[in-house]
Amino acid sequence: MVNISSKKAYRTKRKARETIKGCDMEQYERLWDYAATVRQSNSDSYIAIQINRRSIEQRATFQRLFYDLGALKKGFLASCKPIIGLDGCFLKGPFGGQLLAALGKNGNDNMQKGLVHAIEELFPGAEHRFCHKHLFENFKAKFKNSELRELFWVTTSATNVDDFKRALNALEISQPQNGEDLTVASWLKRLSYHLWSRAYYGIAAKADILVNNLNESFNNCILKARDEPIMTLLEFFRRKLMQRLTLKKQGMEKYGGKFYPNIVEKLAKVTSVVNLQRRSYSCDAFQLTGIPCVHAIFAIQSMRMKVENYVDECYSKKAYLRAYAYSIGAVPSKDHWIDSGIQLLNLPFVKKQPGRPKKLRRRGPDEPRDPLRASKKGLTIYYKRCLKAGHNRELVKNLLIPNQSCTRYI
């Protein structure tokens, strides 16, 4: 047994980590070379590095980086739905920072108040939708009445304007205005209906999604890599996406159907004035998603026609394969990187906060610590021996009420 100090143990751990995952200083210094190598091995890729330079003689300091692989860009433009999910997460490394991700959505079946002005300025005319899960978290923080929660989801999920107005009116009746107190209806009305109401969504994207689950899944997928050095992090993304593109393409090539498996499953579940020429119905679900609703399916089947002929082309196998037709190229080891000839970069400036850095994100008030384990919060607990509510081992052992017994039932 060898006795070493805690400082020596930490230094040994840091050196081992640098050997396995790479040195932060070296990776920031060679960031220009890595970007040039990725562009060479992946055509049409775009990598932009923003720096802060005080003088020509001094080294520049890294600020931020934009990373876009050509295969992903071309696949999105070729066949993905015209909808992008935006979300961010914090990095856990010694320099902190945030990772902002923009993800597209294929047809095989997801934004927030702070982004409204940015979207309007940078993408004028683009449709902007809120994630209803985040909107609901803000709703729960302001309004504690649990009876209004169901009306909230009915209002935001209505697919046509008439149903939306009826649901919004029900909200106003359930919580009438009391002086200047803020109500749920008045809180929702402060936001444009096009941001949060499915009834006012555009039909070009062929998507009625209400939540940004796509980005949430991505954040969970990269969780173990968020404390890695910058190049190790970027290489994790590239390899993960390279494997995924190949896997999805091979899986769909083996599939024999005309449309995506998830879409066929949705059509199978609905076996039940429709305008089949315009592919629309008064409930608006048909034209919003591009998938025949139950009313449209009934009309199609009554005319002895195939339901598949009225599904939008974006859900077809051909469209799926167009999205995954491009592959991400391999990047050689650092010994074979291109010498960009650009001055080396300094590490980003970071203000070290007191205390141990946090690794876990802040959870919502109603979010369980372990999502796979059912919570007993709010349930009535019965003692297994007497099956009486509120009893436990200590209470039964020290009963204060005379003549009260605890009988074990067999």
TrEMBL record:
Region feature Disordered, mapped onto this chain: 354-373
Annotated GO MF terms: zinc ion binding
Signal peptide positions on this chain: none
Keyword Transmembrane helix: no
Protein name: SWIM-type domain-containing protein
Residue stretches of biased makeup (Basic and acidic residues): 363-373
Name of the gene encoding the protein in the UniProt record: LOC113709806
Domain SWIM-type, residue spans: 270-304
InterPro entries in alphabetical order: Znf_PMZ, Znf_SWIM
Keywords: Metal-binding, Zinc, Zinc-finger
Keyword Metal-binding: yes
